[in-house]
UniProtKB/TrEMBL annotation:
The modification N6-(pyridoxal phosphate)lysine is found at residue 197. Belongs to the DegT/DnrJ/EryC1 family. SUPFAM superfamilies: PLP-dependent transferases (SSF53383). This is DegT/DnrJ/EryC1/StrS aminotransferase. The lineage of its organism: Bacteria, Pseudomonadati, Bacteroidota, Sphingobacteriia, Sphingobacteriales. It holds the Pfam family DegT_DnrJ_EryC1. GO terms for molecular function: pyridoxal phosphate binding; transaminase activity. One of its GO terms (biological process) is polysaccharide biosynthetic process. The active site is at residue 197. Keywords: Aminotransferase, Pyridoxal phosphate, Transferase. InterPro entries: DegT/StrS_aminotransferase, PyrdxlP-dep_Trfase, PyrdxlP-dep_Trfase_major, PyrdxlP-dep_Trfase_small.
């Protein structure tokens, strides 16, 4: 059997949607992007949704929108994909990394201690689709001792009057918190539509706004659409709608708009997401969870509790007491059986670039602990029952072999 890690979901509806766009002769930003934004509003209940060409570019734009600049700090977890910190560097500011909890999410207490008078934003990552502790994070940023430390330097910072809470929702499309879509628990939630994510547009992202009433969300939407298109007053589609050729450039925006040909893929997936694609992911996650629960080496991942429910983007299997080398060998074993597994994530302080600018994994012991024992298993709607059983059997065998080896080694020494 050959089981890839996360192939995109491409059914007839996706193909039809793309063909429809091709035949319409309109392939860049236009009606399909508008429809995708509307679907994102329906799913998240957000006040505005702006599609862009990646999570990363969307995050850079929103940090710039908030006026984050050189000398500012943005708090991020050490345990994430590099983009979570790189967007902060691209905005000119300093990513202040903090350690994570045992559920992989940023530790709100560590966040509280990392706040300084330079802190402008927090980027909280819903790892594997599991929402961060947003109630605590909101309590931290709204605490009067913390708001007193906040020095607004731009109009948007004045309007908010406190640290901006951005959710890195790259994994968590469809996740819930306290009975509402998790996106509503932060000021801005940014989703990724990269090829491996739950919903994809090949490359793409969506910014969902749930800003306070001090902001005019309709105006912000118009402004951000312009920002994502060179600060241009009219997009190409509007110009074809008989609104005239003349346009203006109001400010130096970015060029990060999403094309319709990409939106067409995501649109066809999103229309089946809540009723079909997400429930299938959930079913697979619980099949893994219930079966592996029979083994004492299994550390269950966070999937759902009274407060939160995951989007089941990853199944982060953790193996009790395994070393990093032992974990690597299990992945090798699985690879030999045709199963592609992965690790989410190598903590950023372990990557060459972040090391070179002074980050050290020793400062983030729990990020290392989670990383060293983690294996992300294939989880996607196209997996057959036979494939899932095959993965389960081989994981169990691989771990048994590895634990046996480790015990022999310990005896020998
Ligand atoms: C995929 C991912 C991103 C980046 O998304 P892009 O759309 O590829 O820019 C950011 N954060 C996390 C946690 C991710 O997994």
């Amino acid at each position: 059997m050959k089981i890839p890690f996360s192939p995109p979901f491409i059914d007839q509806a996706v193909i039809d949607s793309v063909m429809d766009t091709l035949r319409s002769k309109w392939i860049t930003s236009g009606p399909k992007v508008k429809e995708l934004e509307q679907e994102m509003l329906n799913l998240t209940g957000s006040r505005a949704a702006i599609c862009v060409n990646s999570w990363t570019s969307g995050a850079i734009m929103m940090l710039k929108w908030f006026g984050v600049k050189e000398g500012d700090e943005v708090i991020v977890p050490a345990y994430s994909y590099c983009a979570t910190a790189l967007c902060v560097l691209h905005a000119g500011a300093k990513p202040v990394m903090v350690d994570v909890l045992d559920d992989f999410t940023i530790d709100p207490i560590k966040v509280r201690y990392a706040i300084t008078e330079r802190t402008k934003a927090i980027l909280a990552v819903d790892i594997a689709g599991w929402p961060c502790n947003y109630n605590l994070l909101n309590a931290v940023i709204k605490d009067s001792a913390v708001t007193k430390m906040f020095y607004p330097e731009t109009e948007n910072q004045l309007k908010l009057g406190r640290i901006l809470l951005i959710s890195d929702a790259a994994h968590s499309i469809g996740a819930t918190y306290g009975g509402v879509p998790a996106a509503q628990k932060s000021d801005i939630a940014i989703f990724s539509f990269h090829a491996v994510k739950n919903v994809t547009t090949a490359e793409g992202g969506c910014i969902c706004l749930n800003l306070t009433d001090n902001f005019n969300v309709a105006e912000e939407y118009t402004y951000l659409k312009m920002y994502s298109l060179n600060g241009q007053t009219k997009d190409a589609f509007t110009k074809t709608m008989g609104s005239g050729w003349r346009y203006d450039i109001l400010f130096n925006g970015l060029k990060i708009n999403m094309p319709d040909i990409c939106a067409a893929i995501g649109l066809a997936q999103l229309r089946q997401y809540k009723d079909l694609l997400l429930p299938v992911r959930k079913k697979i996650a619980y099949k893994y969870n219930n079966t592996f629960s029979l083994f004492s080496w299994f550390v269950p991942p966070p999937l759902s509790n009274d407060e939160r429910e995951s989007s089941y983007h990853l199944f982060p299997l953790r193996i009790r007491d395994i070393t990093e080398e032992g974990r690597d060998q299990i992945i090798e074993y699985l690879s030999g059986k045709g199963i592609t597994a992965n690790v989410h994530f190598i903590p950023m302080p372990m990557l060459t670039y972040f090391k070179s600018i002074g980050y050290d994994i020793q400062d983030y012991p729990n990020s290392y602990r989670q990383y060293a024992c983690e294996i992300s298993l294939p989880i996607y709607p196209q997996l057959t029952n036979a494939e899932i059983d095959y993965i389960i059997v081989n994981v169990a065998n691989a771990v048994k072999e590895q634990i046996y080896k480790t015990k022999m080694l310990k005896k020998a020494s």
